[in-house]
Specification:
Layout: E1 4-8, H1 20-28, E2 31-34, H2 37-47, E3 53-55, H3 61-73, E4 77-80, H4 94-102, E5 106-110, H5 115-123, E6 130-135, H6 140-150, E7 156-161, H7 166-177, E8 181-186, E9 194-199, H8 200-207, E10 216-220, H9 231-247, H10 252-263, H11 267-280
Helix pairs in contact: 3-4, 6-7, 7-8, 9-10, 10-11
Length: 281
């Protein structure tokens, strides 16, 4: 008789968030498949459990997946966990799930923490419809292409991002998606949990040169219908924005750049417009 595969959610920061059922399943199974045996070993030690661990991640999936399937077919019960949160979310665990189902092996879930859901509810943006895009591509070209593909989705957008790239990604988001409201959510459930809100342009300017630490989820408000400007109205809007930014102490160069982004005008056109007004005075 085949064994059973348990998809067990583990804490994303605060170890006290683990559920009683998760503890019972981890204690009961024959084997725990995990991304990093050292990381999961610390959790099990905290829980007072001693279990057989096997590493299972994207770099060894081709070798370990058949081994785990054989174990399940032989009657073993296996818990699949990720380093943090719900397994198969942005990790290769779905391969073990689909292979198990194809072979008639029972699969069940032990639900619990998930960073994307926690960040979504913390952001304050609508939750009736949302799109999760996993990790944004690390290189600018593919990242901007990905953003272009989701620009018109009428849902809140959620992405995972590296703290090393968050500033550059926010800049690309601002330029591709428009200056939407967003929230950078970091260190969820940990001591330094933080939600940094604002529009994409301001967040990019704040975080581009800053050393950001911790696990990050980027939540972006859905596309909103904006009033269409005729050419004259757009020019007037750019100049109003420019004057406002100058009054706030911004340099002329930065004020032009930000005004152009906010209204949706090419930077070069906005610069010529400002220069033209200057010359006409």
């Amino acid at each position: 008789m085949s064994g059973k595969l348990y998809l067990v959610s583990t804490p994303i920061g605060n170890l006290s968030d683990i559920s009683q059922r998760a503890i019972e399943v981890l204690d009961m199974v024959d084997l725990v498949a995990c991304e990093d045996t050292r990381h999961t070993g610390k959790l099990l030690k905290y829980l007072g459990l001693r279990k057989q661990l096997i590493s299972y991640h994207e770099h060894n999936e081709g070798v370990k997946l058949p081994h785990l399937i054989e174990k399940l077919k032989d009657g073993s019960s296996i818990a699949l966990v990720s380093d943090a949160g719900t397994p198969t979310i942005s990790d290769p665990g779905f391969g073990l799930v689909s292979s198990s189902r194809e072979r008639g092996i029972e699969v069940t879930v032990v639900p619990g923490p998930t960073a994307l859901i926690s960040a979504l509810v913390l952001s304050g943006f609508p939750t009736d419809a949302f799109y999760f895009g996993g990790f944004l591509p690390s290189k600018k070209g593919p990242r901007r292409k990905t953003l272009q593909q989701v620009a018109d989705i009428k849902a809140t957008l959620v992405f995972y991002e590296s703290p090393r790239r968050i500033g550059k990604s926010l800049r690309d988001c601002s330029e591709v998606l428009g200056n939407r409201s967003a929230a950078v959510v970091r260190e969820i459930t940990k001591l330094h949990e933080e939600v940094i809100g604002g529009n994409l342009t301001d967040l990019a300017e704040r975080l581009e040169g800053e050393s950001v630490k911790g696990e990050i989820v980027l939540v972006i408000d859905r596309v909103r219908k904006t009033p269409s400007f005729n050419e004259k109205e757009k020019e007037e809007a750019v100049l109003r924005c420019y004057d406002r930014f100058i009054d706030s102490g911004m340099s002329p160069k930065e004020a032009v750049k930000k005004a152009a982004r906010e209204v949706g005008m090419p930077k070069s056109d906005a610069y010529r417009l400002v220069e033209k007004r200057k010359n006409n005075r």
